[in-house]
Amino acid sequence: MYKWSIEDPAGFWSGIASQFYWKEKWGKQVFSENIDVTKGDVKIEWFKGGITNICYNCLDRNVEIGNGGKIAIYWEGNESNIDGSLTYSELLQKVCQLANYLKDAGIKKGDAVVIYLPMLMELPIAMLACARIGAIHSVVFAGFSAESLAQRIMDCKPKAVITCNAVKRGPKVLHLKDIVDAALSQSAENGISIDVCLTYENQSAMMRGDTKWHQGRDIWWQDVVPKYPMTCEVEWVDAEDPLFLLYTSGSTGKPKGVLHTTGGYMLYTATTFKYAFDYKPSDVYWCTADCGWITGHSYITYGPMLNGATVVVFEGAPTYPDAGRCWDIVDKYKVTLFYTAPTLIRSLMRAGDEYVTRYSRKSLRVLGSVGEPINPSAWRWFFNVVGDSRCPISDTWWQTETGGFMITPLPGGWPQKPGSATFPFFGVQPAIVDEKGVELQGECSGYLCLKHSWPGVFRTLYGDHERYETTYFKPFPGYYFSGDGCSRDKDGYYWLTGRVDDVINVSGHRIGTAEVESALVSHPQCSEAAVVGVEHEVKGQGIYAFVTLADGVPYSEELRKSLILTVRKQIGAFAAPDKIHWAPGLPKTRSGKIMRRILRKIASKQLDELGDISTLADPSVIDQLITLTDC
Ligand code: WT7
User: Which residues have any ligand 1 atom within 6 Å of their CB?
Assistant: First the structure.
């Protein structure tokens, strides 16, 4: 199949496309691409002219082929005694009711809708309802701060925001509606006002009476949505019409709105899901990610549902009430396919094997990992302890931009090597290049690029096609540049080595160093900041911030806390620095560029490996930094 997919991508992918429902078939050309900036604008199209709808393919099609009674979602609440489920028919009805409401509220094809919801069933319902009416959803992870949410709202100018009043995660109640209120007033001050804020009353966390309310703008989901009909006409869209926007971090401060379109993304998520997890109709699949990230888009909502799979949606924290919760859920729903991130594996590994072995886990069949390179010891623990040495591990390398898996094992297809994502998926042609952009052959290491497009690749950065070209296609002309380092061993296996740009990967969450820096310098007592990633036992990478204070401001524990709080408030708790290192000055070149290479060495205490410091404008800052290491 791989050989076929490379030799005849049009034939290969149209064969797969014909397994889906198309209102009208695509034009003569299956795909057209220009990814070479030297030959003009970057443009990628797959199945242009084909008319379809991804919600129809996820729901109606499954009901029509007799799967209406099959469970689509098992929902597990934060507390294990609160749960629920929906069959495919029931899910379709709920999606139609919301779609009808949204249409009535004036939302049309091509309008954006921001969704700020935790892992309730209403989150995939809201995504699917938008897709059904051709609206573009932009899900913002409900751990982002009001400021980050406002920034995204101001960028995509949605017609409506969908949220809930509160959520319980572990022992804590989080008041999401307050965050939305703050974000909406901030965006209104900047001229973007939102007319509709549909709010789900999440009674397991908080009753509606305790929620602050803006008459006229805010509407309780439960008061309006259930009144609408349970069927809703589908808005048929072109394969190249936008499906969603998802903001992700880059190496500058402003988040990038990654735009995915409908047709190619549909085939790609469905096919990667099917093969990388060896999906069978009897499987019960659980992915521990949140729908606020790409993993939840492609591998909680779309990929699995396009296959008619039964999906577990979990509201809570995976270590609440204790480190055995995941295996409790696996046994409760007889989960067969379990997909998670190395950071969670490492934290469960530290908690001890007895939390795992206490549960049977005999339903498990295939395990998956995503988000960052999985270190071989975590891989072995996952394989031996969690999977009782019988479940293959799919270590899936991909990105928000790629839409779906790019380098991944196919379970049982070939021997595994702990820590390697193994080989490219169908249609994917990796290239490892050197700094000059020359493709390396055989055993080598360098920058990971991709040749040619594939159906699931993103088509642009929302409102900024130039940044799209500059970031991804200009560094190595003729290729898509991933931003990752990679090596290939003598057997042809790929080994991802982490980001080579100014992006840090904290617990599988991508954070731009520039974003954290701009949050820090917004603090009145901070004059300059430089952020680097350091190795972290559980999170993979931790955030290490060098901070220069305004003249005359003394260092204090209180100030350290207040700087961290500023980052939490501006970005979200997951971006809080692990370490603040007071810096009387930062190492800069004569042209004023901060030398992060040196800061990375200082942060990881590799002081004898600082390298060439002769290009620094003021080499004495290094000594000052080293003596202040422990502050
Ligand atoms: C970056 C993409 C794709 C969903 C989760 C994160 C890193 C992701 C792996 C893996 C090594 C990985 C890369 C990539 N990454 N999966 N299996 N092995 N590294 O999505 O936020 O778009 O981040 O995550 O560095 O570039 P994202």
Answer: 248, 294-295, 370-373, 395-400, 421, 482-484, 496, 498-499, 505, 508, 510
Residue to probe by mutation, ligand 1, list 407, 471, 486, 496, most atoms within 8 Å of CB? 496
pLDDT digits (tens, 9 = 90+) for 426-435: 999 999 999 9
Query: Which uninterrupted H or E stretch holds 518?
Result: helix 513-521
**370 alpha carbon – ligand 1 mean position (Å):** 6
The Å distance, Cα 181 to ligand 1 centre, comes to 32
- What are the residue numbers of the active site? 501
Label residue 572 by pLDDT band (50, 70, 90).
very high
- Dihedral Cα 70, 76, 77, 83, nearest 10 deg: 50
Lowest mean pLDDT: which of 163-167, 426-430, 583-587?
583-587
How far does Cα 128 stand from its chain's mean position? 18
* CA angle 604–606–612, rounded 5-degree value: 120
Rounded CA separation 175/419 (Å): 39
Report which protein residue has its CA nearest ligand 1's atom 23: 399
CB within 8 Å of 177: residues ≥ 6 apart? 163, 164, 165, 166, 199, 211, 212
Backbone phi, then psi, for 393, in 5-degree steps? -110, 125
For residue 370, the number of C-alpha atoms closer than 13 Å in the C-beta half-sphere is 29
d(CA 179, CA 166): 10
Q: Whose CA is nearest to atom 3 of ligand 1?
A: 399
Using the 8-state DSSP alphabet, how is residue 262 labeled?
S
**Contacts (Cβ under 8 Å, ≥6 apart) of 34:** 40, 41, 42, 43, 44
- Look up the ipTM and state it: 0.99
Residue 629 has pLDDT above 90, yes or no: no
Pocket test for ligand 1, best of 402, 420, 510, 515 (most atoms within 8 A of CB): 510
Q: How far is the CA of 133 from the centre of ligand 1 (A)?
A: 31
Closest to 245 in 3D by CA, of 236, 253, 256, 235: 256
- Rounded distance from Cα 508 to ligand 1 centre (Å): 7
pTM to 2 decimal places: 0.94
d(CA 432, CA 536): 27
Asked if pLDDT for residue 28 goes beyond 80, the answer is yes
Strand-strand pairing, 429-433 and 393-395: unpaired
Compute the mean pLDDT over every residue in the chain, rounded to the nearest whole number. 96
**CA dihedral of residues 596, 600, 605, 610 (deg, nearest 10):** -50
Query: 9-17 and 263-276 helices cross at what angle (nearest 10)?
Result: 90
Pocket test for ligand 1, best of 247, 290, 293, 372 (most atoms within 8 A of CB): 372
d(Cα 149, Cα 144) in Å, to the nearest integer?
A: 6
pLDDT tops 90 at residue 32: yes
Q: Is the pLDDT of residue 215 over 90?
A: yes
Structure token pair of residue 425: 């998926």
For residue 339, pLDDT beyond 80: yes
Question: Which atom of ligand 1 lies at the shortest distance from residue 249's CA?
Answer: 21
Give the number of the atom of ligand 1 that is nearest the alpha carbon of residue 510.
21
Could you give the CA distance from residue 299 to residue 293 in angstroms, rounded to a whole number?
10
Q: What is the DSSP string of 186-229?
A: HHHHTT---SEEEEE--TTT--GGGS---TTTEEEHHHHGGGS-
Rounded to whole angstroms, the Cα distance separating 163 from 154 reads 17
